[in-house]
Write a structure and sequence with these properties.
Shape: elongated
Radius of gyration: 22 Å
Order of helices and strands: EEEEH
Mean pLDDT: 81
Number of helices: 1
Strand order of the largest sheet: 1-2
Distance between the termini: 58 Å
Low-confidence stretches: none
Number of strands: 4
Largest sheet: 2 strands, antiparallel
């Protein structure tokens, strides 16, 4: 079931503003807004990040592994495994 509420749109010089009612509270302070036809879609940033991560993982799965000469040494939780010059 979809919940709907009427809210007033406030027009400002810098853009339009709406107050989001408490029952529509989001789980993030950062949101992504997109437009699909006449619909505005507001999502927590984490949802967009997950989609981006999924796309990146899908792309990485299509790539060939690095040749041994280009491989990167693993890094332990304690730091670099060999000295690094800065």
């Amino acid at each position: 079931m979809s919940i709907q509420r009427h809210v007033r749109l406030t027009r400002n010089v810098g853009g339009d503003t709406i107050s989001i009612p408490p029952e529509f509270a989001l789980s993030s302070d950062d949101v992504v807004i997109s437009k699909d036809g006449d619909r505005l879609i507001i999502e927590p940033e984490t949802a967009r990040s997950r989609r981006g991560n999924d796309a990146l993982l899908a792309w990485l799965a299509t790539q060939e592994p690095l040749p041994p000469e280009d491989a990167i040494d693993p890094v332990s939780r304690g730091g670099a495994t060999r000295p690094v010059e800065l």
